[in-house]
Amino acid sequence: MQNKKKYVFIRRLESGIGTGGSEIINSYISAILTKNYIATNAVYLQRNSYNSFTDSFFASLKMFAKLTYGKFLSRKVQNITYSSISLNLLIKKIEREDNQNLSLIFLNAADYIEISQNYSNMKFCYFCQHLEFWDINFIQFKQVVQEAHKVVCVSDYLYQICQSLSNYRNVLLLKNHRLHHIPQQIIPTNFRIYDYIFFISHHYWKGYKDTLYCIKFLREQFPNIKICAFGTNEEASIKKYLSDFKIDYFTHINKSEVLDLFKKSKVFVYLSHFEGYGLPAVEALDCGTYVLSYNNYGINTVSSPRLKVVGYRDLISIINELPISIKHSESIAFKDVALPSVEENTNELIKFLNNNERLCQ
């Protein structure tokens, strides 16, 4: 009797529930699990230095299946949180106990680097969400892409890089899609509370310095406008800065609360330097909010008359567009953003994984 494969997802989760590219990858995982592409139970391994997030993160994975397909995960999936030193031992333990061929799916390049010496001949798929240079260097990133049996990218710039590194073989681009399109109640622009909304992260590459500069410019040039911001940056200096400029700043808010803020705002100014996907911009557009954004490479496949994209980190153009964007938010009619569905992209993904060798059975 032929041994059945076990599908093992390996993910690093260092700072809680992710958004954007992280959520896109979660949607694919939940779709694969829900649609019973796997012959046996799957194992979902995650490294998590924030233990309080473990249960809620896996619950969110199940929720994607509920929102997308109208039901929760239909099969039992083993969820294991592992420490930084136990991944090799854990995979060997799974192999020994189940006597199965493992299909390893690395959702983070650093995890592959960690165990690659012990699994030199392994065939694996790498989901490329970011250029993960905060965990690994470029040489290591290149190693992962070149040794991967399959590479899946969630943005065009990653796709081009990975194609070049892999000599144009076995790389798939999954274009931006909506996670779970729940129709939003569109509030007319003239009834919205805030003129501008910003996102302020604790990561420098999310553009928080440029964001603070824009807020200062707006407040000095247009003292009577209303501005709000949401985010994860809780530095005392940042909070004082925003307070001095009379900005309503919201932290520790959930997805529905973010969407509610978008619906109350005319213009979302999105100054992240680069993104794997750029989900907040799509969510803002779905709420009828005009979006002004840097070219962060993750947003290139989104098209909307209510989206204005300027050059990469072109702060001067952003400043020039800020007053104009309010007029555009009032004059350009709302139109639903056309994006592929999760179902369409998942079917393409499964065909890719099953090509030549069936990673999914």
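Second entry:
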Amino acid sequence: MAKVFLTELLEEVEMSDVAKVSREIMVSVEPAYVNLRRFINIRRKLGSVVCFDSGGFAFLSGKLKQLPNPLRTVHVYKALGYTSRDFLMQLDIPPYFFMDKERRLEMIRKNAEYYYIMKSRLRDAKLVPIIHGWTSDELKYSLSLVKDPDEVGLPSNIAVMAFGSYLAKTALKEVATPWNSYEMAKSIPVKLILDRLVSAYNILREYSVFQLGGGQPNTVHIAFLLGAKYADGSGWRFHAARGVVYIPGYGLRQVTERGHHAKRISAEEAALLKEAYYESPFRTMNFNKFYMQLKLKDTFRRLWNAWALKYEEKIANEYVNDPDRYFNYLLRRFTKAHPVWAKRLQYMYKRIKQPYVQSKLTVFLKTNPMR
């Protein structure tokens, strides 16, 4: 079954209501590098299955001043009290897409080294390697390194592989980036991101894929259509803070008077929201009061969006075993609510059905990126 892990901040999990709507939660351990004592055994307060992210972006962006150390990450994971059900993401430092090829390959090798160091000390844990690269050749090279059976005598039968989608960079007016630069992140050609995504899924067909950076409903659905088994989503928090709500089975709409992060909700769309409300745990509240709370309170929008994203997971599981039917459903839905995503969906699905191989960044620069 397809599963969405709702991404919550480690420092907020004790106060968060997200566990009320999701059994699957993802947290970055970034704050634990600074104050580990505060979070010892915090796993007891989380969901049924937890994915711990290493916080590698924080090292890359300079938010964490210490050097990345896989042994330190192992120590943090153990102190937080992970269980045998949990996923532990390896410490990884993503290569910049604008780096020269040799520098990218060097970082890919370093990430593989980090994985093996961690795996040698977490043999019984579900440690997930993260594949990197901006070309098909680089992605294949990254995969070959982490499945090398000669490394420290470790088994090569890895069940789950993860990679970052970067799809959020094509969807948001503001993005959190490992480069600490919104303009730099937005300079990545959309076509490059889409082609990279297709290449990754074609390469990882033998594995259960955990797509990182799923973000919001549209990108999560695309992940599941292309072959992901797991995806994380942090957009529910991001969008709630900016006055945007999720309408299950439809899309994203702005409900606050201020804000321009999505189209403003229409009367027809408000009616669709009301239909979803009747299927939700919020239906015990008067609808007018419910709608007013969505307009006024960030915390209320967060909880609604978290529930709505898990509802999208339910929709995905109705279609995921029939890709053509799933594609047609998403195409109808995106064409109505998010036409740009309909074009991207068609572009990727055509290539996942007939694998598209692209190995040189220069080719992307010679073609017009998708609009």
